[in-house]
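Project outcomes to date are best conveyed with an example. Our students and postdoctoral researchers have been running inverse folding experiments weekly, and each run begins with a structure described purely in tokens. The record below, which covers 177 residues, was selected by the lab manager from last quarter's runs and is presented without edits.
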């Protein structure tokens, strides 16, 4: 004798999704002659997914570009820039951190040339992103962060100057976050 209707088990909750019965045969539940004993279980399907709401576009500051310049990150006479192995480690470390903010297109860390005078842009790191959202996140998260005992100054950099290899455009290194 059943105490409840078959399609309405006692553990039905007052939710939008009903419990749905399904029948199964377990290889572990068998009669003495070896035939499986059918069983019944109940499950509740996941609620239907709500359509994703589109996020509003971030508000970007004037002059935002896809290129971020990290000034004061490395000393112009740092050993990391002269030694090839240390330089590759530095590039890998910067890439790993920069990927956290968006799709990274390229990383440029100028090195001093063979001339006694330092090359343009030495001591800076340039990160090019695929979109403005990634570069904005990077600038926001890395500005005034510490790296190797130095405080990073992150600023947007003109894309045309970056594409032309001109890494000596001044950035405001005294700006507050």
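After processing, the design step wrote out the following sequence:
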């Amino acid at each position: 004798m059943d105490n409840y209707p078959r399609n309405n088990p006692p553990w039905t909750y007052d939710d939008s999704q009903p419990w749905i019965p399904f029948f199964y045969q377990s290889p572990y539940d068998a009669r003495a002659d070896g035939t499986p004993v059918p069983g019944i279980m109940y499950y509740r399907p996941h609620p239907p997914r709500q359509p994703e709401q589109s996020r509003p576009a971030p508000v970007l500051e004037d002059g935002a570009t896809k290129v971020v310049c990290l000034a004061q990150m490395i000393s112009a006479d740092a050993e990391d820039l002269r030694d090839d192995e240390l330089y590759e480690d530095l590039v890998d470390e910067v890439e790993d951190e920069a990927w956290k903010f968006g799709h990274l297109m390229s990383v440029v860390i100028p090195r001093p040339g063979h001339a006694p005078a330092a090359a343009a842009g030495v001591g800076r790191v340039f990160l090019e992103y695929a979109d403005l959202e990634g570069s904005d996140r990077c600038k926001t998260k890395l500005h005034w962060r510490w790296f190797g005992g130095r405080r990073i100054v992150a600023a947007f950099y003109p894309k045309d100057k970056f594409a032309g290899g001109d890494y000596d455009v001044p950035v405001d290194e005294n700006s507050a976050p």
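Residues 96 and 118 are 27 Å apart (CA to CA). The helical segments are 79-82, 84-98, 132-142, 159-163. The training component of this project remains on track.
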